[in-house]
Description:
The complex is a heterodimer.
Chain A (H helix, E strand, L loop, with lengths): L1 H6 L1 H28 L3 H19 L4 H28 L1 E2 L8 H11 L1 E3 L5 E8 L5 E7 L5 E5 L2 E4 L5 E3 L5 E4 L7 H6 L1 H5 L3 E3 L2 E6 L3 E7 L1 E4 L4 E4 L5 E4 L5 E2 L5 E2 L5 E2 L3 H8 L1 H36 L7 H7 L2 H4 L2 H11 L6 H6 L9 H29 L3 H9 L4 H29 L2 H5 L20 H10 L7 H26 L7
Antiparallel strand pairs in A: 1-17, 2-11, 3-4, 3-11, 4-5, 5-6, 7-8, 9-10, 10-11, 12-13, 13-14, 14-15, 15-16
Chain B lengths: L1 H16 L8 H30 L18 H8 L2 E2 L6 E2 L1 H32 L5 H12 L7 H14 L8 H26 L2 H9 L4 H29 L3 H6 L8 H9 L3 H25 L1 H9 L6
Antiparallel strand pairs in B: 1-2
Helix pairs in contact in B: 1-13, 2-12, 3-12, 4-7, 4-9, 4-11, 5-7, 7-9, 8-9, 11-12
Amino acid sequence: MRAIAFFSGTVGFAVKIGLLAVTNAIAVWAATVLISKSNWIALVVLIAATVGIDLIYLSKRAYPAKFLVPGTVFLLAFQVAPILYTINVAFDKYATGHVSSKHDAIEAIKQNSLSENASGTAYTMAPAHAASGKLVLVLVDQDTNKPYVGTPEGLKPLPAGSVKVNSDGEVTSANGYPLVKGNELFTLDKALSNYTVPVGKGAIRPQGLDTAVVLQQTLRYDPRTDTFTRLKDGVVFRDNGKGSFAAASGEQIEPGWRTKIGFANFDRLIHDPLVRSPFLRVLIWTIVFAAVTVFSSFFLGLFLAIALDKKGMRFRRLYRSVLVIPYAMPALLTILVWSGLLNDKYGVVNHIFHVHVPWLFDANVAKLSVILVSVWLTFPYFFLVSMGALQSIPAELYEAARVDGGAGWQVFRRVTLPLLFVAVAPLMIASFAFNFNNFNNIYLLTGGGPTASDSSVAGSTDILISYTYKVALVTGKGQDFGLASAITIIIFLIVATISAISFSRTRALENLA
Amino acid sequence: MTTIEQVEAAPAQRVARQPRRRRPKFKDTWWRHAVGILALLFALFPAAYIISASFSSDATLTGARLIPRHITLDNFRTLFKTNVSGSSSQASAHYVHWLINTIIVATAVAILSVLLSAFAAYAFSRFRFRGRRMGMLALLLIQMFPQLLLVVAIYLIVLKTGDVFKVLGLNHLTALIVVYLGGAMGVNTWLMKGFFDTIPKELDESARVDGATPAQVFWGVVLPLAAPVLAVIALISFVGTVNEFILASAILQTPDHFTLGVGMQAYIDQKYAEHWGPFAAGVLIAAVPVVLLFVFLQRYIVSGLTAGSVKG
Lengths: 513, 312
């Protein structure tokens, strides 16, 4: 009761005001940062949240809100917001080559479509400053020796003789345009590589620091019809509604852009054979992995509980406390240890048994290995749970069964097992849901490998969650955030279904009362 | 509370009811011991090799024998004295860094997440308000979307917040802590509400009659009564944080900011031959305190676990 006294009256009030003051101070500081970054949407959210928090904690009522706000703030920011974001991305074409806006993609295509013309003119070039201080290019046509000045607005001829070129073919001076020299020249590298002087149907682009060439556009963009036309053969590329310009033949121009494509990502999982077959393979393996892990662990744990939890048996307590060690050790580290023990070259397992089994490098053996390790991690849990459940079965039931003439095995099958299942089933379902998403067990042991025969991103031991991780974040075969988010939503639906079954069994919902 | 009391009480009653039987004859139990020894071998085999490898002078995996020829502390010295370099970065980091980072993150998450979910559970257990049912159902639904599924979205969000507030950006422990706290409420609130519901309401009502505010009831009555349960949940949350890999590896980028799991993974990755000895020593140091805590608190942890959460 001392705590009540401590938090009563002035002290409690002071603590509350102090915490509120700190919160507001942080919010004010954050607001200044947001203003300096002109991030207005975030600023509005911040102000609304801060004012809301102040109102709740200064009001005399609103008790539930006072207790719910702290957790809810974090929940919204790092759980709900990511969920909404994931759902949003699942309906997007958002992948390597489809990351920016349409406007950026059009500009990028225009830039990329410039190519050197066979008969194109080459210029001796020197970067210089105009009177305004802006960067310009002093250019001398290498065939005709006529001097020009090039700006992003276009090409302007200069009076003959106003630009001097030495015998090495370098521009040495230009009247009215002081040349950029020395170190400053090298700092211009990036500015120069993006510098474009439009001429006719193409553009003059610098090639290095002292030459420039005329590049011709191979594609022309028409903003009125929103199409690209290939000048060579007149093929028209239209916005295909999936984030790319595509020709009637199906040919597409890189890059595309990020856009809403409805259920197309989900559609690919069903209809695109390149996506469907690895997805189905991984889905089936995920279910097999989780189910085999849970059932093997349960029966091993149950068997050990029956064998070792015998009243009055010697060493009973020792067995009981030592067998939970695999469960107690940090799983993350023990999985890494197992990956060392099962290593085919240096691993202890091959060493003791004098064999050369590729535990982690053969598709089928690797599947056995990941199940072996996950059973090793899981059986102590079911050992503990089964012991508890066995003890809670009333002895009277056994006596009744014996009176009715039941033999040992019969009693076990007809009495023990059904009663045990009632108690353990919800835990098995929870364990199934956990192993369904047991990323560490797969990723740290085999990395999802070895590579499967269809050589997709998905390896032979990849489960849905590690497959998703690779689709989204592992570069090499291209990242696809849209597809990864679509798979995430499917995983969610599966886990939600499993959990719903579990909750309806345990009747946890009755707690709502 | 009742859950634990029941678990404790049940075996006691049984013992009291039945007269103590004589120890069964070895003739009847030998097969049980055979099973037990096999099970012990299976359960302890990796642990035994970790202990032996960490004290062995012969640090390579190939030469590993269960009883090392020379017992030495060289592996521990290597672990603590030299800088072990991370996987890809030029920076190098120290095992001690990883240990400290892990303790900081896991302690902060354990304490704060228990507090946050205790607040919420108290509100759901003691108040009747509009949206209560919806709120609890929403939590149930949100909890089915584990944070590890959201790693891509969380990565992109942290990338953005880092532009504005450095400490909440990539490669900051604070960012990792607040991300974990986002997942805290969904996991623990239901469990704790169950415990709070078993604390008699008359207790806080009498305190209210004496003029205590709800905050005073929470800190003074409910929290002290639920303390053992909260401690177990905090411990489970601590171990769960130590075991978390995917978010930590996405957010933390340089070896000096790694947590233990991310650091050890980078350290041993593809280098089993060279790094096995110090790696084993590092695993041993990290595992011993956790295992001891677990063995001592086993009874409480198991009752907490069977109440519905699965250790990560």
